[in-house]
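Lab notes, practical 5.
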Amino acid sequence: MSREQRAKLDAALRRPRPEGPRTVEATRAGFRAMMAEMIVPDGIRTRSVPLGDRPAVLVEPADGPRPGTILYFHGGGFVFGSPETALSLTANLVVRTGFRAFSLDYRLAPEHPFPAAIDDAVRAYRALLDGGEDPSAIAFAGDSAGGGLTVTACLAARDAGLPVPAAIVAFSPGLDMTRTGESVAAKESADPFFTRESLEYTGAMYLAGRDPRHPLLSPATLADLTGFPPLLLQVGTNEVLLDDSTRLAARARAAGVDVILDVTANVPHVFQAYTGTLNEADEALARAALFLTQHTRPRTPTS
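Output from the prediction step:
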């Protein structure tokens, strides 16, 4: 365990920030600046492509991909973030698996509240299927709000009659807009990123007055996960969102879903982004890549 690394990161994340609510544009700019500091590995190539009716960034190994596709959803509370801010995470998965990844630029609140992001995600998945990709070759992955989107997009796709993807990987996912998990209060002093107030500030933009007691808003407590693919949830103990993952894992087990709840001690929200500076980040990404390669297996055509 990298106790010194974790303590140094926690102290850095607790540096004073502007007080009070910030404008949406200021929040977006601050997040871009923070994520621009993350290490993007060598050995990739990127280009902008359309996917469904939204832009996406295609990330591939520089020497060409092996069979397999990751559909990636970035974090940012459904209000900020982009494929560019998630590039360190997407690129690390690509380098470690050899798969290609499409990182979707889904619509954001408050301009486009619920269910715009889910609609965009399902359309992107449908576009991959319509393009000839086998669902056994596709995995969903995402972080934070995008981690939650891996689950809600799978729910929406299943309910629309589409085949589910081969696997889901969610980093520190947001899975409960009701904020009823005990960790929301119990972990507030340990979490250097979030408070209940900050979660409710961005959450209100995404909800736009909708009742959060809906399976596509709070799957950790309300979703029927029957028929879901294998699921990997990675989360840190220093997160107010910890119980989002623990409760979804329990629902998945109850529904007969293969699920791994991967909890790392004393690390913050989406700690996987801190590759190169936090040993636990590299170790978690290695486990995520192994999970993806084990479960994303394109079918061999029969003669």
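Observations recorded by the TA: The longest helix spans residues 279-295. The longest strand covers residues 44-51.
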